[in-house]
Amino acid sequence: MLLNMLFDDEDEGSISALFQVGDIVVQLKQRPTEGRVLDKAKEELQDYALAHPEESCLPKTADGEYDSAFPNVGLVVWQAGFVLGEWLLRAQPLGPWGKPLRVLELGCGIGQLGIVLALAGADVTLTDLAHITPLTQENADINASRCVVKPTVTPYMWGTPVADIQAPRQQQQQQQQQQEGQTPGDPQQQQQQPWDVIVAADVLYEPQYYDKLLSSLLQLCPAPPAAADTAEQPASSSSSSSSSSASPPIYMCYRFRKYDERGFEARAEAAGFAVTAVPVEELHADYQCGGYRVIRLEQRRRQQQQQQQQQQQGQAEAAS
């Protein structure tokens, strides 16, 4: 997947690389693991924590400094993003990416996964912590000219209201529509439209954040109403609410590093998600022996409804 060797940039000690996923070439900047870069990241995250005292998920030392064994994880390339991106482009589990599908990425880091999907035609929103998103924005800008829809980049901390993600996306959509001479859509209608899919790669290396991540996923993927509840709704409201209540699937990829990654899957199951794994032989040949795992999360009730609909459709076709 590596197309060209890494080469040095002049700004802030960055290094860049060209990567190829399928037929798509993406240029990415990343920050080397230099002390001054990591210190800057810690300072920015510390400032963010001070500005959001209600957030208690940030571990701190006795001196009040951000404390993590992985302070640079969002600033460099991690292969799980390419493993998942390559499989999504090849398998097309939701159909062609050029609809464009609306994609939300959590914990995007430098943006390699989301930008690959954006280059394939998807409408992508990239989210991560505030000290990471400036680098994500740089990479989104570098590749924007070749994207059908320019990726939206916005800071987001797991466990906080997901409405914080939607507003920047709507603003960028309206600006792009105005630039193209289109009439901006109804903000209220856009707010109701769900994401078509949520993706995340290599975000399970700190188990203390699993509950925060699940909190966000439950907000983004609420369980659909039971069949009895749907039947009680007026017919006029059922069609208008069906699209807004749809719960998007979630695709994740991680590498086993003995950080209780399978424990996250158990918690997701307990929270109401059905978790299925992509067979390892379906992954790119270079990563079938690398301990990588791709999983799909979907609200169990919605999955059951879809299975029932498929059975009913099959029965109807057999009867005809």
From TrEMBL:
Residues 166-193, 227-247, 300-320 are annotated as: Disordered. The lineage of its organism: Eukaryota, Viridiplantae, Chlorophyta, core chlorophytes, Chlorophyceae. This is Methyltransferase small domain-containing protein. Pfam families: Methyltransf_16. InterPro entries: Methyltransf_16 (IPR019410), SAM-dependent_MTases_sf (IPR029063). Residues 235-247, 304-320 have a biased composition (Low complexity).
